[in-house]
Write a structure and sequence with these properties.
The chain is of the alpha/beta class. It has six helices and seven strands; from the N terminus they run ββαβαβαβββααα.
Length: about 160
């Protein structure tokens, strides 16, 4: 997983669900996606955040997120930023924004807002750690445990 620090660039706007049904509709490839309320609802599988990340988005700004979608985003390094709806609309109108995870701020031409994020999630995103990366930070302790624990059966972790 890549480290997240500051994400700056043009903003793609996804504020109407019927746009994708319009002929010739296209979602510009930008680092930031600004969207409507309850973004990610109905997409609890990992594929929804993966698709956004594969498309090139690094952050999604919305007034609210579906819980599982939010969690899945943070696990792959896609930053979900929850802001009040009026700030999201201002970001959409500005068309360019800067998201600073360390400072927990979003700034755009004419405004700035702060956002909340769980501190452990923030640390993991700043350090580029997924679940496996967090586990591997304890590799020495895991190795010690495996070497010292009593086994009551055949050894399956090493072939001698």
């Amino acid at each position: 997983m890549r480290r997240i620090g500051v994400i700056e660039g043009r903003v793609s706007v996804l504020d109407r669900s019927d746009w994708a049904k319009q002929p010739g509709w296209d979602l510009p490839r930008n680092p930031i996606l600004a969207a409507g309320r309850n973004f990610g609802c109905g997409s609890s599988r990992e594929h929804a955040p993966w698709a956004l990340e594969d498309y090139g988005f690094e952050a999604v700004i919305a007034p609210s997120f579906a819980d599982i979608f939010y969690s899945n985003c943070t696990k792959i390094g896609l930053l979900p930023v929850e802001l009040p709806e009026e700030h999201v609309k201002a970001v959409m109108a500005a068309g360019h924004a800067r998201v600073d995870l360390a400072a927990q701020t979003v700034s755009w031409n004419g405004g700035e807002a702060s956002f909340e994020i769980d501190q452990e999630t923030k640390r993991r995103l700043l350090e580029g750690l997924d679940d496996i990366g967090v586990t591997l930070q304890h590799a020495d302790a895991i190795d010690r445990y495996e070497a010292e624990r009593e086994r009551s059966g055949p050894v399956t972790t090493k072939l001698a």
